[in-house]
Amino acid sequence: MPIVELQIENLRSISQLTLRPQPGWNWLLGANGVGKSTVLEALHLLATGQSWRRGQRQLIRDGAEHYRLGARLSDSIAEFVGMRRQGEEREIARDGERIHSAWELLDTLPLQAWHEGNAHFVSGTAEERRRILDWGLYYADRRYGVSLREYRQALRQRNAALRQGLPPEAWNAAVIRLGERIQDQRSIHVEALQLHFQRIWSTSPQADQEVDFVLHPGWNGDLAEALERDRSIDQQFAYTHSGAHRARLQFRVQGRAAAEQLSRGQLRLLGIAFRLAQIAVQRDAGAALPVILIDDFAAELDSRARRWWMQELQALQTQIFAAGTEPPAEPGDTLFYLHAGQLIEEMQ
Ligand SMILES: Nc1ncnc2c1ncn2[C@@H]1O[C@H](COP(=O)(O)OP(=O)(O)OP(=O)(O)O)[C@@H](O)[C@H]1O
């Protein structure tokens, strides 16, 4: 059980809240606007250093000067993670030591989050799907984070050269070498995902739909040739148009784009099976299982789909935080009832 205590101070509508979560399911319940998503957001901030909200919505509670978050952990490489934000200043500390890069947080508290920004990644942008894929691979292959960081750095340098009107070729070798390495790592990972995905999907209520996914590397043919071909367009837009940063994961139903064939609920289920497969691959690789956050658990799913998802998650034996307006009918859950940013009742 990774999280044994969560402390929140001045985050959105919550002035002060302490929760003591249990292993397994932790439900955050209450009417709209009581602060359920805010609790999940606090966990997301602590685990990734980032809000899941796009754009700068105000996270510090109105009238307050700062927010402060803390999580006591067990079964982890650290016992306490804390974060404080005041204006533009943010401090993150792990066991009392300051952390300077959000990358360092990722290994402290692996977290798979379902929220408004990614719940529809299957039919969302290529970037959203790439981010989801990279999340899974980061934990399944310990070398992947290094490849990704090095590639991003080479790409930044190439794009900076393009912006300054300098020839970008000096950076091609690094972009090609690292881009191809990333594609190799992603292809192996996608193959492993396919196996688990098909097994998981075959137990889902939508198993009669023939679905799969393919990965396009982000360039056509050979990467060196693609960079050569793109030279003038890259210079015109001061941007590298081919490379691992343009990879596209595509979901298909009988060979056609899933987003055009399936309903929103079916697409959500497809995304759920994919993300369950990611955890199965991580488990095969011996990685620590992530804590799972699910905002608006019931959204768009019928009762069979909800039951199936719950059973699949239950089987993982990891810690889960789910927000909803209605309690589930499952024994062994912990229910936290919120009202106006406060915990009003806790039931086991
Ligand atoms: N900076 C802020 N200061 C005070 N209140 C805020 C701030 N930002 C957002 N809020 C309020 O916080 C409340 C809680 O929002 P939250 O998204 O956590 O609710 P929720 O319980 O998840 O609701 P829902 O079931 O509708 O998703 C909202 O009413 C929102 O207006």
**Biggest sheet, open or closed, and with what strands and sense?**
6 strands, antiparallel
Ligands in the structure?
adenosine-5'-triphosphate
What's the CATH class of the domain at 1-110 and 294-348, please? Alpha Beta
**pLDDT averaged over residues:** 93
State the secondary-structure class.
Answer: alpha/beta
* Element pattern in H and E: EEEHEEEEHEHHHEHHEEHHEHEEE
How would you sum up this structure, described in words?
With 348 residues, the chain is of the alpha/beta class. The chain has a domain of 165 residues: P-loop containing nucleotide triphosphate hydrolases (Rossmann fold, 3-Layer(aba) Sandwich), CATH 3.40.50. Helices cover 39% and strands 24% of the residues. It has 10 helices and 15 strands. β5 and β6 form a beta hairpin. The longest helix is centred in the middle third of the chain and has 30 residues. Bound molecules: adenosine-5'-triphosphate. Adenosine-5'-triphosphate (ATP) binds next to α1.
Set out the fold topology.
Blueprint: E1 3-11, E2 14-19, E3 25-29, H1 36-48, E4 66-73, E5 80-86, E6 89-94, E7 97-99, H2 103-106, E8 111-114, H3 126-140, H4 144-163, H5 172-201, E9 211-216, H6 223-229, H7 231-237, E10 248-253, E11 256-257, H8 258-261, H9 264-284, E12 291-294, H10 303-316, E13 320-324, E14 334-339, E15 342-347
Parallel strand pairs: 3-13, 3-14, 8-12, 12-13
Antiparallel strand pairs: 1-2, 1-4, 4-5, 5-6, 6-7, 9-10, 10-11, 14-15
The structure holds adenosine-5'-triphosphate (ATP).
Adenosine-5'-triphosphate (ATP) binds next to α1.
